[in-house]
Amino acid sequence: MNSSEYIIALKSTFYAVPPQETYIEKLQETKSNQPLVLFLILVTVPLEGLLVHLRGNGKQWRLSVAMNNVLVGAFSVAWNLFFLRGLELLVYIWCYNNIRIAHLPWNSFYTYVIAVIGVDFCTYWWHRLSHEVAFLWAAHSAHHSGEDYNLSCSTRISALARLTKWMYFVPLGMLGVPPSIFAMHVQLNFAYGLWSHSLMTPNISKIIPGLGQLIEFIMVTPSNHRVHHGVNKYALDKNYGMLFIVWDRMFGTFAEEREDEPIVYGTVSQMDTFHTLGLQLKPYQQLYQKMKAMKTGGDRLRTLFYGPGWSPGKPRLGAEEDIPDIVRREQLEQSLPFWLNLYLAFQTAVVVFLVKDMGVRVETFGLWLSFVNFGIILSACISLGALHDSNYYAVWLEPLRLIIFMVASHLYPMLSSHLITTWVSAVCLGSLLFWPLLRDHLHSLHASSTSAQNGDVRNKTK
Fold this sequence. Notes:
By secondary structure, the protein is mainly α. The chain has 20 helices and no strands.
């Protein structure tokens, strides 16, 4: 891995890649920048955390929540690279090869312009419908349920959203945008959206009068994307743009950030789990329970395809008078001892490093090794997620996954060098030394919970 690849990844987060560098003829030559971008975010997140605390906004940057967000991102990248392995591109490629209406050269500037605008236009509609269709919101809500708004929130991406996102880009294949160019610009569009999750960046018009107003009018900025993540009544279902905010101005979904009303972040119904996978799966459970409670087949279908706030007899997106006016509320607290926060932060950094090391070499992996790599990352996310939620089964799962990974890293060529394999083995062995602390901590919580439950039973029988 050379420094130039990191520089390219950094430039991609601002869409600052010259057009010539996006001219790629063959899809196989388009490398995923997600592992490197995720790694850069991991490096940047602690610095932002320090600045946020120095400015007195510490409630918007909690170590355990930030690391959990990054862990969600690591799982999503691993899911895309090692499990889906580009399957979502198959329909796009078929449409391009069989029913395209034009042939756009891969090395043309006008193809570049069409790809930049077209990908963002399609992304706007994917994003908007992910808020307006309940079963799509079940996937996307994982990104919004975090109540700390900072750069780490940008990595809190639902893995399951990828299963439906592809369909919004099919028109570009029919238009004739080559798959290699499409794949490049989808990555650049996604990477640009990462920095817009900054809490520290003020409205750009205040920094650069005149030019800043023009940028805020055309481009997505941290100021207008903060609105998108708010649950304040004025902010709900606003500012869907990923690169250009003009789509929101055109289609009536734009709202300006207000100085007189601090933004409350999260989802209207607060998510009561911090588990890496649980926060992605629980919305589907809630949607299923809502659908099951409906009395007619039509209402069950409407529960899936109407807005998440819909109920029988109400408009498709729900009634405006039913929307709560949230201007202040307490954040959900995650009570973990300081040493456990540090342990989780270190393990998350290791997982991100592994995804980066494996991800940049994914083209060399066969199907079996890709699934092995995904299984290793999945087990880490389940175990560390259980520790975030203080689930008792982590007592045996955490040491088990460390031992399995240590053995698997020597059996399979999943890592890029013998040195890294040795380092990973040392990390696993060192981490096992924390097992007595983890055991005592979880035993104590389990005993307290059991005692409280027994007390509740006794009170009910009196």
